Amino acid sequence: MKNIFIFLFLTFSLGIFSQIEDPVKWSTSVKKVSDTEFILISEATIEKGWHLYSQDVPDDGPIPTTFTYDVSKGGFSLDGNTIEEEGHTIDDPIFGMRIKFFENSAVFKQKIKTTSDASTINGVVEFMVCDDSKCLAPTEIDLVFNIPEKVNNTFGNQNEMLSPVKWKTSIEKISKNEYDLIINAELMEDWHLYSQYTEDGGALPIIITKADKNKGYQLVGKAIESATVKKFSEIFKVEETFFEKKGVLKQRIKLNKELSSVTLNLTGQVCKEACIQIDENFTFSLNGEKVNSVAKSKIDNAVTNSLLYGINTDDLKFSTIKCDSEVSSSSNQIQQGGKTLWSIFGLGFLGGLLALLTPCVFPMIPLTVSFFTKKNGQNKSGGVSKALLYGFFIFAVYIILSIPFHLLDSVNPDILNEISTNIWLNIIFFVIFVFFAFSFFGYYELTLPASWTNKTTQGESSGGIIGIFFMALTLAIVSFSCTGPILGSLLAGSLTADGGAWQLTAGMAGFGVSLGLPFALFAMFPNMMNALPKSGGWLNTTKVILGFLELALAFKFLSNADLVAHWNLLKIEPFLALWIVIFAGLALFLLGKLKFPHDSPIKKLSFPRIAGGVLVIAFVIYLASGFMVNKETKTYTPLTLLSGLAPPVGYSFLYPNDCPNNLDCFKDLKTGIEYAKKVNKPIILDFTGYACVNCRKMEEHVWPDAKIDNYLRNEYVLISLYVDDKKALPKEEQILVNRINGGTRRLDNYGHKWANFQTQFFKTNSQPYYVLLNSDGTKILNQAVGYTPDKEGYAQFLECGLEVFKTSNKE
């Protein structure tokens, strides 16, 4: 301690008797953070060889630098302590301690909050400086900070270099020779960066070019932009398009040869109350690890959603206003969902009954029942229990067939929809159904490999429960030539339904119950078999009838492929004509005018065949009525029995209509929202599909209702988003996105884009699905609904949304 004071005394004395030294010059500036927050900046310029000490110096060391601000006049308050730069920390041999100091320059910053229009803030800095031979006495300097007026506060101190944009770059590999070069801009508050598409006559737009003359690559179109804002400029008298807070530009390039890096140049303007020119070069590395590491980087949902849809999930809120009819609308959807599974179960049960009446299954009933009830050494109750177990195992075999589809559904919620709307899969279904149909007509037999039957037959010898299971499995295999086409119809129908795997399970359960139940019932009540008709020609007649039905259904799948692929071939006119020909052929067969290979000679037409022929002729006339034109909608009259089977009536050569019932609709989200804002109407989002059965039912039998039609035509802006549209997206939108249940997927077509929108924003993937939004698409007006065949309930749903929208506008 004594040595320190002697050292200070000597150095101060030398300073007094020598020339006056002033090695530190202080300057001040102010940086605006917001209208009420500022940073007071004190900068020290230090002569070479001198050291200015930190604010934090140990006891017995040199005098620390200390800042004092005059708060006595009020108008502001300090926000935290004065912060300083990193500086240098050394073991000082003179003071014998570790000391932090600054050389050449030092910057100190103090954040304040203003409570009134303070124009000047006074302060004092006390400091001490030393060189290698001496120290100067502690000095106090007055500091004056001039708070700029708001009108002049755009750029803070004019001597300060402004950087209102922070740039970040990344890269995404698309293919071997294509890359997306991504430029992210983070903007300071109230600053605007102007789009490539801003109107001429205003601020300068962004222009992206190659920074060099490298011919090894080329730019593919303009950069894709994230969400922008449009606003009329009172200064330039034009509508300007700009980014605020942040913006993303994605420029695709195509390589003509192998390159390790490319450089892009970006020019434009960033403006607040005045403008700054931008001229930036960005270099992107394309070699090896850097590309892979970027490609595997975390995908930002906010960026991708802004790019694709112009909004983010955080922007979407539920309305706080409720209406009385909202609960009933929601319950309708829930009730309908439960009813659908039971209806599918019923269809499966009906399919099983049809399978029972085929030559492959019907003769097996008395043989199998006799095997269980008359087996040597077995009492009646034992035979009945085994027959019941046999029936249960038949049911179990068909349930097991649906399990793999649940596994697929859990991996990717959209996969069943993707399978059902896959163009080539629908064509394969068409070919298979035609193949099944001609098998039913008797031109050839369908059988599974004989080795399968041999192995299951060997399993029957195991006895007990295992033996009975293999008997059930053997029945499923040997009857495939008759049950296969029916199961194929059930599988294809379930894949195109909204419930996916659960629909398939319900259908398989119904099929298994109806196929296994007779074996159990006839084992319990053997006398009932006396009432069964004897096998004969009627079994083949049943097969041929099923063949005509299979042939008609085959064209449904060809129609799905045509709709999804936009081939414009199998429109409503040729589809109805084909069905008329097919069912006219069925009528001729039933009336004995058309023969097939295994038909028995008909000596006299039975009453069932005559009645069936008349019913089919009536159905043909019904099909022909589908060519009647509805003058109000200017489309063909939709046929209730063909809803979801035939193409939409607007999909026509003679009376084409891109939207159902000649309504005005949009098929792009951003375009639809822009129009809704312009006309100040609420939005109805219609998540639909070309191959969606229930969507067609809603459009053709619920929407034409006068009350509902008025809402859709005059009160709402209809945006129809087709989740199975296979039309390719523009290359710049073919990007990776996050799945809601983990993992990523690439969007290749518009169907992927809209399916991702539905799952990301509304956490559901079934169609139809109807969501009512306000005019800018940021507020959900009421509970969304799915398939709602009740016209009154659906009208209440629309009325509720309109009521909430109008009430919100008044607030």
Automatic annotation (TrEMBL):
One of its GO terms (cellular component) is membrane. It holds the Pfam family Thioredoxin_2. Keywords: Cytochrome c-type biogenesis, Membrane, Transmembrane, Transmembrane helix. The keyword Acetylation does not apply. GO terms for biological process: cell redox homeostasis; cytochrome complex assembly. Residues 676-792 form the Thioredoxin-like fold domain. Residues 343-559 form the Cytochrome C biogenesis protein transmembrane domain. The chain crosses the membrane at residues 341-366, 387-408, 423-444, 465-488, 500-525, 537-555, 575-594, 606-629. It is found in: Membrane. GO terms for molecular function: protein-disulfide reductase activity. This is Cytochrome C biogenesis protein transmembrane domain-containing protein. It comes from Polaribacter butkevichii. The lineage of its organism: Bacteria, Pseudomonadati, Bacteroidota, Flavobacteriia, Flavobacteriales.
